[in-house]
Amino acid sequence: MEKVSRGLSLHHNREHRDFISLGHEITSCLPLQMSLYFNVIFFPFWIATTLTMLSFKYEYLSTIYKFILILILVCLIIIECVRLYLGYLGNLSEKVPELAGFWVLSIVLQLPLHLLLLFSPPLWPLPAETAVEIVMLVLLLTQLGSGFFALRKSALHQARRYHLAQIQNKSTLEDTSMK
User: Fold this and answer.
1) Are 35 and 80 in contact (CB under 8 A)?
2) What is the pLDDT of residue 17?
3) Which residues constitute the signal peptide according to the record (predicted)?
4) pLDDT at position 179 over 80
5) Contact, 99 vs 144, CB < 8 A?
6) How many CA atoms lie within 13 A of 117 on its CB side?
7) Is 84:36 a contact under the CB 8 Å cutoff?
8) Which strand (E) or helix (H) includes residue 38?
9) Which of 6, 90, 92, 110 is deepest in the core (most CB within 10 A)?
């Protein structure tokens, strides 16, 4: 009986060590964080360049394209601020919902809008606009790739922590009931 008790105790200690080591593991993604950092720095330059180029070409656009372009830019600026905040919060705090929100905003809203600004001939993308849009698109694609892997790693980590906590609680209940 003592041998069985010692075996349970060793098994309990091993699970406890696994839980503690898993709880202190860092799952934030460095490439994603670097890309977010560069995006935050580049974002004001993108805004300045885009608005400057808008002032040059605004009078040559038709009324409908003026409205569309203004609407796209307002949406891009608002969504980009929210997206970058969620990316920072989700990656550094290792929060899956925020990271998922960042990734969904990136792929569903930002990517199509940036592609529209870059490749839409009626919106007359000027060379400076094209240059900053390409940089933003490269940053966005980098964030999509690294964000997917960061989201997957963080979700798996949280699931393992949950399962180990369940095992820990179950073994603690069994230990208290044996006494």
Assistant:
1) no
2) 54
3) none
4) no
5) no
6) 30
7) yes
8) helix 30-57
9) 90
Between the two ends of the chain, the Cα-to-Cα distance in Å is 13
Tokens standing for 110?
Answer: 């930002």
pLDDT surpassing 50 at residue 4: no
CB 87, CB 147: distance < 8 Å: yes
Cβ atoms of 147 and 110 within 8 Å: the answer is: no
Task: For residue 29, give both structure tokens.
Answer: 């993604």
| DSSP for 43-95, written as a single string | HHHHHHHHHHHHHHHGGGS-HHHHHHHHHHHHHHHHHHHHHHHHHHHHHHTT-
The structure tokens 């349970």 sit at: 8
Q: Dihedral, CA atoms, 138, 140, 142, 143, nearest 10 degrees? A: 160
From the list 110, 164, 163, the residue with the least C-alpha distance to 136 is: 110
Select from 140, 142, 161 the least CA-distant residue to 94: 161
Tell me, what amino acid is at 164? L
The one-letter amino acid code at 32 reads L
